Amino acid sequence: MEDRYLAAAGLLLSAIPAGLFAIKFRSGSALHLISGIDPAKVRDPAALGEFVGLLFLALAGLLALAAGAVAVVPESVLPVVVGLLVGGSVAFSIALVIGLHKFQRR
User: CA 93, CA 71: separation in Å to the nearest integer?
Assistant: First the structure.
């Protein structure tokens, strides 16, 4: 198997847990898994679950798109794909950290 297809398979496989976490967070039953958040101090648990679930859904989509791109784009374009994946992951992290603070009581 060519290395790029192996990398695409790895990215696609990593999208599965992100999607499952998105479903779990959106149902509101996994708020205790969010590090640094005390569920007792959350103003609106349902909105927090929707927010985190949406971000994880976006991450799963980003990983799936990156998997498809790695599998089909020419090798000369792969550094751009990797750069977009890294940039998207950083944006995900920043949005998550900033957003989590909006849901906590002070």
Answer: 25
Q: DSSP for 21-75?
A: HHHHHHTTS-GGGSTT--GGGBS-HHHHHHHHHHHHHHHHHHHHHHHHHHHHS-G
Matching residue, tokens 């751009």:
80
The gap from C-alpha 91 to its chain's centroid, in whole angstroms, comes to 10
Q: What is the mean pLDDT of residues 32-53?
A: 86
pTM of the model: 0.84
Is 53:26 a contact under the CB 8 Å cutoff?
Answer: yes
Residues 6 or more apart whose Cβ sits within 8 Å of residue 7: 70
